Amino acid sequence: MIKAPHLYVALSSHGFGHLAQTGPVLNALRQRCPAVRLTVQSLLPEPVLRGRIAGEFAVVAGAADFGMVMADALDVKLDDSLAAYRAFHGEWKERLDWQESVLRRAAPDLLLADIPYLSLAAAARLAIPALALCSLNWADILQGYGADASDLAALRAPMLAAYNSAAAFLQPAPSMPMPDLHNAQPIGPIAALGRNRRPEIDRRLGLRGGETLVLMGLGGVNLRPPLETWPALADVCWLIPPDWGQVARPDVRSWAVLSDCSMLDLIRSCDVLFTKPGYGAFAEAACNATRVLYVGRDDWPEEPWLSRWLTERGNAIEIDRQRLASGDLAEPLRALLAQPSKPPVAPTGAVEAAGWLERLLYPRAS
């Protein structure tokens, strides 16, 4: 009996965007190659992983990266991030030994990283074939913030070496430029598709059906806007996360009563997604033909490419933080809803990336 190939996935837990990229790829791979065994290493909650990745897989709770230290969903703590990278690399040998021991026990045939460079470095040391996948990399994100750090080059060197050790670094559209990667391979957008459940959602929320339903998906911590003081907008209803608490307004609903609706179904069903720039939110909105009202992240190095792509391929309007605080959203919402609807973007990147995985897992068949 031929042993089923084993894919090991190292997944960043710096937000849910990395899972939003990787989940559709793994699901597409499982459709093509149902026998593949799968292990996922991440600090994301296991129910969240299983909500996005179909089928059986083992979970290893462990972090091989941390991304950037965040003050909230919009702002990076640069000094803390630089200190964290210096500490991380100061313990490089010990961390690499740990990741090697984990991989040695798992004995995978292929590693996929989105985008922990420690895992890629360990795979290279163990001669395990590896593939990287992401719209960004931590070396370039760090450079975008810490260009004045005297030790920036020393911090980036092991990161870039690890990223370049992969057979390819797949860059789903839209991706930021990565000029120091020699193995970059552009692919199409990656996003999962939801179901339009709007009539059911309106009924369960007690809506009459003619309102503009705005899904609040800002993500992160410490970024709950002061909804209590926002002005009411005619025929607009705000659908908010359960952890924002109760808001005593008739135009605000919690999606707690829609717990059986996936986030993808909510994105597909609502008129507008109110969010911040991020690959998962932008790609899923464009591929589900949902309009986007977003708060600019100002200095996030990936943002210009995300925003330009969404503006070209989808329907989107940017607001500033002053409007987020004041709730002065009547004009941007009007402008957004007046835009001619653009067709949904085809998420072709998932199948493309699955093809890369299949060829590396079954080299003799390719």
Q: What does this molecule look like?
A:
This protein has 14 helices and 13 strands. By secondary structure, the protein is of the alpha/beta class. The chain has 2 domains: about 200 residues, 3-Layer(aba) Sandwich (Rossmann fold); about 140 residues, 3-Layer(aba) Sandwich (Rossmann fold). Helix 1 packs across helix 10, helix 6 runs antiparallel to helix 7 and helix 10 runs parallel beside helix 11. The longest helix is centred in the N-terminal third of the chain and has 16 residues.
Break the fold down into its secondary structure elements and pairings.
Layout lengths: L5 E6 L5 H16 L4 E5 L4 H7 L5 E3 L17 H13 L1 H15 L3 E5 L2 H9 L4 E4 L4 H9 L5 H14 L3 E4 L11 E4 L10 H8 L6 E6 L18 E5 L11 E3 L8 H7 L2 E4 L3 H9 L3 E5 L7 H11 L2 E4 L1 H6 L3 H9 L10 H13 L5
Parallel strand pairs: 1-2, 1-4, 2-3, 4-5, 5-6, 6-7, 8-9, 8-11, 9-10, 11-12, 12-13
Helix pairs in contact: 1-10, 1-14, 4-5, 5-7, 6-7, 10-11
The DSSP helix count reads 14
Strand content: 15-25%
Looking at CATH, the homologous superfamily of the largest domain is: Glycogen Phosphorylase B
In N-to-C order, the SSE pattern is EHEHEHHEHEHHEEHEEEHEHEHEHHH
Global morphology: globular
Determine the oligomeric state from the structure.
single chain
Number of domains: 2
Rg estimate, integer Å: 21 Å
Largest sheet: 7 strands, parallel
CATH fold call of the largest domain: Rossmann fold
Strand tally, please? 13
Structural class, by secondary structure, is alpha/beta
CATH class of the largest domain: Alpha Beta
Range of helix content? 25-40%
Secondary-structure arrangement, i.e. CATH architecture of the largest domain: 3-Layer(aba) Sandwich
Distance between the termini: 20 Å
* Uncertain residue ranges: none
Strand order of the largest sheet: 3-2-1-4-5-6-7
The average pLDDT score comes to 94
